[in-house]
């Protein structure tokens, strides 16, 4: 395939479920000409409580599926997969792949004024200490405090974005961070931007909330530009432009996606990811 034809190929985006849609939404906004093939691993969500080996195996299978769809680049729109699997997969792949952790770490390091950053994420992401590793590469003086919030993903997947139950659980999780004087908080799981207003209410207006999705989409754009892969052709709205695949419960995913994305999604197809 020549460069021009490659430029018209879609970008692959994946997550354990619906969380990555917050990143896909940002990619749609910042690079409206790009086609997207999204995969949500709805049969195997959550990723956050599983081992590095399992998440690496899952991510490899998804990358194989996306390669088969002839994507030109891949975005791991999942912090847990970015933390556990990205380095290994990057070495094996012949197209560019980016994750969400590095871009999020960069913005947070730039945003903090008092050198105290909080990170909330899955058990896997927080246990990997990946955010503090990247942040301290930028500035070793910054203190990074992590807090795993394992109940947030099921609450988001249940649609309880603004609910007293979510308020109560978020208050318990976040008190340790609010008490420690952070001035910046990374939403280190792609599901969390959907409960941003709950988090905002608890941490207060003075704390800067960092959603890595924005910076990830910007990094993708820069990368595609650099590689000469940015799609120059405006896309028609239609079934071909954004395609969604899941490993289970396509109808539920479709309803959910339609509540998050500006463009109505026409359909989500179920595939057997274990075949990859
Ligand atoms: N949304 C994903 C993340 O960013 C994973 C959530 C999960 O499946 O546990 O980490």
Question: What key phrases describe this protein's structure?
Answer:
16% strand, six-stranded parallel β-sheet, Rossmann fold, alpha/beta, 276 residues, binds D-glutamic acid, single chain, 13 helices
Structure at a glance:
The chain has 276 residues and is an alpha/beta fold.
Structure description:
- The strands form two sheets. This protein has a six-stranded parallel beta sheet with strand order 4-3-1-2-9-10, sandwiched between helices. Strands 6-5-7-8 form a four-stranded parallel beta sheet, sandwiched between helices.
- The chain folds into two domains: 3-99 and 214-275, 3-Layer(aba) Sandwich (Rossmann fold), CATH 3.40.50; 101-212, Rossmann fold.
- β7 (184-187), α11 (196-203) and β8 form a beta-alpha-beta unit.
- It has helices spanning 3-7, 21-30, 52-68, 79-84, 86-92, 101-111, 123-128, 130-138, 152-157, 164-178, 196-203, 212-226, 250-260; strands at 11-15, 36-40, 73-76, 97-98, 116-121, 143-148, 184-187, 208-210, 242-246, 268-270.
- The mean pLDDT is 94.
- α6 (101-111) crosses α12 (212-226) and α10 (164-178) packs across α11 (196-203).
- With 276 residues, it is an alpha/beta fold.
- Bound molecules: D-glutamic acid (DGL).
